Amino acid sequence: MRAAGIELVATAFLLIAVVGSGIMAERLSGGNMALSLLANAIATGCALMALILAFGPFSGAHMNPAVTLAACLVDGFSWRIAFAYITAQITGGVIGVWLTHLMFEMPVIEFGQRVRNGSGQWLGEVVATFGLLAVIWGCCAHRAPHTALAVAAYITGAYWFTSSTSFANPAVTIARALTGSFAGIRPIDAPEFILAQMAGLILVLPLLRSLSRTALRPNISASS
User: Fold this and answer.
1) Which tens digits make up the pLDDT trace of 59-110?
2) Burial class (CB in 10 A: 0-12, 13-18, 19+), 137
3) Do the Cβ atoms of 85 and 8 come closer than 8 Å?
4) What b/e readout covers 154-170, taking b as 16+ CB neighbours within 10 angstroms?
5) Number of neighbouring beta carbons within 10 Å of residue 47
6) Which pairs with CB-CB distance under 8 Å and at least 24 residues apart come from 51-54?
7) 3-state secondary structure at position 151
8) Which portions of the chain are predicted below pLDDT 70?
9) Of 28, 65, 160, 175, which residue is 20 to 30 A from 86 by alpha carbon distance?
10) E strands of the chain, at which residues?
11) Angle between helices 144-161 and 119-138 (to 10 degrees)
12) What is the DSSP letter of 142?
């Protein structure tokens, strides 16, 4: 329960970073969408690296149900603990969005208005999730700081090289459906994103098992 509580706090701060930087970027960019996305990506990547370094030794810093499920399917992570983690991640994400709305003096309860659908964006989520999990497990042979740096760099880049801006995280997707800000997604579009993320997880499993078997120093600590 202590580790799940840490997951709740970490995921809440991840959403504060994602949504808060989106709101600030949108307010200061003068309508320049490219500048808003750049600011959002950099802020998210920096916060993600700090959160993995801070909380990785205590809970693994998953902050992502896809990471937790992959740990169960590949490395024998406890399903009982996984249920507590996923519950904490979703709860933490929602709390993070609500806290962000309060900070920026927005209505606490609102829903996403940004349209994010279509086969291109769904494929983008498959690619984003596949890549994120591959990067995490690919860092197994390194010490934890390498994982934090690699995941942060990947997410920052994936904001730009995927059509969906790389949610790659069911908890983040659910939470972002509850904000009408720059980072939001329409609730009606969220289920397709989550299904695409699960497809990315299923497709990457053989690679993760191979990486896990051949890693010299297993050290999963991960993210998004």
Assistant:
1) 999 999 999 999 999 999 999 999 999 999 999 999 999 999 999 999 999 9
2) buried
3) no
4) bbbebbeebbbbbbbbb
5) 20
6) 51/10, 51/13, 51/14, 52/144, 52/147, 52/148, 52/151, 52/152, 52/221, 52/222, 52/223, 53/144, 53/145, 53/148, 54/10
7) helix
8) 143-144, 215-224
9) 160
10) none
11) 160
12) S
CA distance 164 to 168: 9
Which residue type does 120 have? G
- Domain 2-214 sits in CATH 3.40.640.10: no
Tokens for 224, please give them. Answer: 């998004």
Note whether 182 and 116 are within 8 A (CB): no
Q: Token pair 């701060």 is at which residue?
A: 13
Tokens of 121: 């964006």
What would the two tokens of residue 28 be? 């200061």
State the angle between helix axes of 2-28 and 33-59 in degrees (0 to 180), rounded to the nearest 10.
170
Tell the residue number behind the tokens 């934090």, with chain if given.
Answer: 148
The residue written with tokens 């929602």 in the block is 94
Alpha-carbon distance values, 171 to 10, 86, 215 (Å): 12, 8, 28
Report the alpha-carbon distance of residue 194 to residue 186 in Å, rounded.
Answer: 13
Closest CA to 146 of 132, 158, 135: 135
Give pLDDT, residue 1: 84
**pLDDT value for 213:** 79
Residues in the chain: 224
Q: Can you read off the two tokens belonging to residue 2?
A: 């202590």
Rounded to 5°, the CA angle 223-9-47 comes to 50
